[in-house]
Amino acid sequence: MFLPTPPDTDATARLEQQDLAQRGHVMNLTRLWSWRPDVFDGFAALRAALMKDSALTQRDWGVLVCATAASLGDSYCALAWGKTLAGEADAATTVSVLNDEPGGELTPRDQALSRWARQVVSDPNGSSPQDVEALRAAGLSDREIFEATAFIAFRLAFSTVNDALGVRPDWQVAQAAPAEVRAAVTFGRPAAEAPAR
C-alpha cells in the first residue's frame, strides 16, 4: 500500500488478532485501516446493522458486492466476495456477475441486483423510477431496495479507500477464490505474490 504500516497500538493488535483468529493471516486491508481502527470498527458495525435484520440473502449480498467491485474495478473485493458468491451459487454464475454477461444460473433477482449495483456505481443520478420498478418486478421489497442501495454505497466507500491507497488483494484471498473467478478478475490491482517456499 502507499502508506506505511501504522504504529503498533492495542487497537491495531486487536484488529490483527481478529484476522488471525478468523482467517489465519492479517489482511492487507486491515493494515491500512489500522490507521483508524475506530473508523474500521464503525464501518463494520454499520454494515452488520444493515445486514442483521434484512431479508436480503447471502447470495444477494454476494451479487451486490461482485457487481459493485467489478464496476469500480476493485480486485480485492471481487476475489473475496467471488469466493463467497461461488459458494452460494457456483463459479459460472459468479463469473457472469463479474463480467456483466449472461451465464451460469443467474436468476432474474441476481440480474436485477447486478444491474442496480452497476447503476449506483456508475451514475446514481441517472437512475429512474423504471430502474426501481425493475427491482420490484424481480421480487425485492421497497425496504430491500433501500438496503441494497445503502449496502452498495457503503461497499463503494470502503473499496474506494482501499483502492486509492494502493491495497493489493492478499495472495491467500486470491488463492481461495475458484480458478474461474481468479481468471475473470482482470481489473484492479494484482494480488500480492505468495512467499517463495
How would you briefly describe this protein structure?
This protein is an all-alpha fold and 197 residues long. It contains eleven helices and no strands.
Explain the overall architecture.
This protein is mainly α. It folds into two domains: 8-53, Single alpha-helices involved in coiled-coils or other helix-helix interfaces; 56-184, AhpD-like (Up-down Bundle). Helix content is 68%, strand content 0%. It is built from eleven helices and no strands. The chain has helices at 10-23, 28-33, 37-52, 58-72, 75-88, 91-99, 108-122, 129-137, 142-164, 171-176, 179-184. Helix 4 runs parallel beside helix 7 (108-122) and helix 7 crosses helix 9 (142-164). It starts with 9 loop residues before the first helix and ends in a 13-residue tail after the last helix.
Keywords:
Single alpha-helices involved in coiled-coils or other helix-helix interfaces; mainly alpha; 11 helices; globular; about 200 residues; 2 domains; AhpD-like
Distance from N terminus to C terminus (CA atoms, Å) equals: 23 Å
Q: What is the CATH homologous superfamily assignment of the largest domain?
A: AhpD-like
Arithmetic mean of pLDDT: 96
Question: In what range is the share of β-strand residues?
Answer: under 5%
Number of strands: 0
Largest sheet: none
| Uncertain runs | none
Helices and strands in order:
Blueprint: H1 10-23, H2 28-33, H3 37-52, H4 58-72, H5 75-88, H6 91-99, H7 108-122, H8 129-137, H9 142-164, H10 171-176, H11 179-184
